[in-house]
Amino acid sequence: MTTIRTRLLIGLMTGAIVCTLAATMLLYKLADHEADEQSDQRLRLLAWSLPLQAQQDWQLPHENDPDDRFDVQAWRADGVPVHLSVAAPALPFPRPQGFSTVAHQGQRWRVYSDTVSGFNVQVSQPIAIRQRVAAEMALRIAPPLLLLLPAMAIMIWVVVGRSMQPLEKLTQAVRGRTPAALQPLAATGLPPELHPIVMALNVLLGKVESAIATQRNFVADAAHELRSPLTALKLQLQLAERAEDGARQTAFRKLHERLDRATHLVQQLMTLARQEQGGAPPVPQRVDLLKLARQVVADHAIYAESKQIDLGVSAAIDALDISAHQEGLAVMLSNLVDNALRYTQPGGRVDVSVGMEHGRPFLRVADNGPGVPEEGRERLFDRFYRPDGNTVWGCGLGLSIVKSVADAHHALIRLNTNGSRGLMVTASFPHLLAG
After folding, report:
1. pTM flag (> 0.85)
2. CATH number, domain at 55?
């Protein structure tokens, strides 16, 4: 692809050449017009001055320059010719007085006719002579103008080079940024045209720095959280190795529980990483929230039965379509239902509802478990945060994943108390598709 510098040089040089040629043509036109005016004036002067010499022979002034050639024809008032130039066009009198252009012997002539002192005078000159005079006048002016082209080329080269220096300076500044040094670019000393680019790059650098910091924090938190279950697994394995035959089954059962917790933690970490990877956003599609809720409830039905929890779906409508990423919504709702089942006591109730509220479609998961104090709800979306006093095992990533999916869909998450106890989580979406 052609560089900006090359495009500027080619464009400016082409423009300079075209303007020079146009100026040369204009000069020729002006010179031609000037030559015509001067020659017409000389034709008129000759026609007025020669009859004054009628008592003598009709003699034209001797001119060494062929460009000053004129031909004269004169008649007395009675039509008797007194002077006839052989080369001049033989035009009969009487003729209209004044200037005219005629063709004679393959040439075009400029003719002036007038009656002066009783003589009919006709003075003529070939048009070719005038054109040659005009061309010579233009050629005397054009060379200095053409000699300016090299000087203009050098000036254009220097100006374009200096104009590109701020862009090269900005390029060097961007090239100097590394993942460890993503400080904003300075806009001082740069032309105003580059300020929007610098601002956009600074916004991008800020996003990259934030993404890198998030990744580092994620890796640090993941390593910290994985250390405890892996250490516990190692200790549990050592206990199982030393256990007697009767206690070995209990030790292996606890080992399986530790493995399940570690597996769940790794799965949640992978899910959170996929939601926050920062790649291209998925293409939205038509998603029926009611159908999605029923599918997620069906997936958790066995777990709900094992805990003797009443899990169901309620909706006042038959279908509710929005534009969203179906897999992301499924992950979000699955985590909400899983959290509700995990923290609700046996014999409790978990309700998943779908509907419209204040003109916005929503998904809601409500349980009658122990709930969360209002002052502790702010931190529920923090990674690896678990309220004090929790005896149910978990990794503290479920609601972080929910928040990540909700932000990707521009949804609003609200936490409220479900009646007198329990927790109710509502996700409101901005878009509703028409049926």
Report:
1. no
2. 3.30.450
Alpha carbon distance 50, 116 (integer Å): 9
| DSSP 8-state code for residue 401 | H
Token pair recorded at residue 420: 């007198």
3 state SS of 357: strand
| Nearest CA among 357, 354, 339 for reference residue 422 | 339
Q: Residue 435: what pLDDT?
A: 45
* pLDDT, tens digit, 9 for 90 and up, residues 78-104: 777 777 776 666 666 656 678 888 887
179 occurs within a structural domain = no
CA distances from 252 to 230, 246, 292, 332 (A): 15, 11, 38, 33
Same domain for 98 and 227, yes or no, is: no
Q: Domain span at residue 241?
A: 192-275
Alpha-carbon span 408 to 275, nearest angstrom? 9
**How far apart are the C-alpha atoms of 102 and 96, rounded to whole Å?**
13
Res. 389 pLDDT band, cuts 50 70 90? very low
Give the β-pairing of 412-417 and 349-357: unpaired
- Six-digit token pair at 369? 């478990």
The identity of residue 263, as a single letter, is T
CA-to-CA distance for 292 and 282, rounded, in angstroms?
18
**290 and 256 part of one domain:** no
End-to-end CA distance of the chain: 48
Tell whether 228 and 324 lie within a shared domain. Answer: no
Distance CA 3, CA 280 (A): 29
- Domains in the chain: how many in total? 3
Is the CB of residue 413 less than 8 Å from the CB of residue 403? yes
Question: Could you give the dihedral angle defined by the CA atoms of residues 283, 288, 291 and 292, in that order, rounded to the nearest 10 degrees?
Answer: 40
Q: Is residue 407 part of a domain?
A: yes
In this structure, are 221 and 306 located in the same domain? no
434 pLDDT exceeds 80? no
**Co-location of 229 and 296 in the same domain:** no
In angstroms, rounded to a whole number, what is the distance separating the alpha carbons of residues 178 and 293?
45
Treating both helix axes as pointing N-terminal to C-terminal, what angle do 326-343 and 398-408 enclose, rounded to 10 degrees? 150
Pairing of strands 310-315, 349-357: parallel
403 inside domain: yes
Spatial separation of the C-alpha atoms in residues 272 and 253, rounded to whole Å:
29
The residue among 137, 171, 205 that closes a domain is 137
Kindly report the CATH number assigned to the domain that includes residue 336. 3.30.565.10
Among 261, 259, 266, smallest CA distance to 240 is for 259
Q: Does the residue 69 lie in any domain?
A: yes
